Amino acid sequence: MTEKKVLIVYGSRFGATEGVAIKIAEIFRDNNVLAEVVDLKEKSDFDNFDNYDGLIIGSSIKIGQWTRHVKNFVRNMRLEIQKFTKPFGFYVCSAYAALEEQYAKVKEEYIPDKLTEFGISIDYYDAFGGVIDFSESSRMGWLEKKIMKIAGNQATGAQVEEEYTDLRDWDQIEKFALGFLDLLKA
Ligand SMILES: Cc1cc2nc3c(=O)[nH]c(=O)nc-3n(C[C@H](O)[C@H](O)[C@H](O)COP(=O)(O)O)c2cc1C
After folding, report:
1. Measured between alpha carbons, how far is 96 from 87 in angstroms, rounded to an integer?
2. Coil vs helix vs strand at 87
3. In the chain, which stretches have pLDDT less than 70?
4. Residue 62 DSSP code
5. Cβ of residue 122 lying under 6 Å from some atom of ligand 1
6. How much is the pLDDT for 160?
7. Which residue CA neighbors atom 8 of ligand 1 most closely?
8. Per-residue pLDDT, 147
């Protein structure tokens, strides 16, 4: 039997969504499923998804929005996504997803609510926490750091003093990847 192949495309501003894409791909490869990981900043032109057995889209959230590249990808590929009958998953990385009382709300707002605007429905999706990075090597500008301090404090319920806080729950991410593998097998 030939190996199944999944396309994982993502848009990441500060690295959290990218790290999740890489982790999901690792889990797939460990389970003999090929994973092609594509940063939509680098490549976003696909004719169709005929060569893939599954598709996962990941997006960073900033001020309630996906990245521009994810938005463009979904807009441009909406007809292909609509007719893709194989497993389709979507995830976001967002600071508020790490907050228990916000999780269910942001998961709906950031994924199915937005996809509906493109006429796309989704059954398999999840919202993961993000990273709060105030380190020297951070990709955040000073204003972004300032906003993040406020959002981070709200999301963690505590003062974010650390240089680098990772709010991603790797068990949750593994569960998402393994659940997707089940869909591929079904
Ligand atoms: C300027 C700014 C705005 C943000 N806005 C939101 C937001 O509206 N909701 C949210 O849950 N997280 C928000 N975040 C947190 C990001 O979602 C988090 O940093 C995540 O790691 C982003 O994914 P990325 O690292 O892949 O870019 C914001 C972060 C910054 C810097």
Report:
1. 27
2. coil
3. 1, 152, 155-161
4. B
5. no
6. 66
7. 63
8. 77
Range of the domain at 61: 5-131+166-185
| Sign of the CA dihedral running 62, 68, 70, 72 | positive
For residue 94, give the ligand 1 atom closest to its CA: 17
User: Number of folded domains in the chain?
Assistant: 1
Q: Output the domain CATH number for residue 17.
A: 3.40.50.360
CB 38 within 8 A of CB 7: yes
DSSP 180: H
Residue 36 bridge partners (DSSP): 7
Q: pLDDT at position 143, please? A: 80
- Is-above-0.85 flag for pTM? yes
- For residue 94, being part of any structural domain is answered with yes
Q: How high is the pLDDT of residue 174?
A: 98
Q: Is residue 146 part of a domain?
A: no
Ligand 1 centroid to residue 1 C-alpha, Å: 41
Is 156 a member of any domain?
no
Q: Which two tokens stand for residue 32?
A: 């003999």
Determine the distance separating the centroid of ligand 1 and the alpha carbon of 94, expressed in angstroms.
5
137, part of any domain: no
* Cβ neighbour number for residue 101 with a 10 Å cutoff: 8
- pLDDT recorded at residue 76: 97
For the chain, the residue count is: 186
- Residue found by looking up tokens 């996809």 in the block: 115
15 lines ligand 1 (CB under 6 A): yes
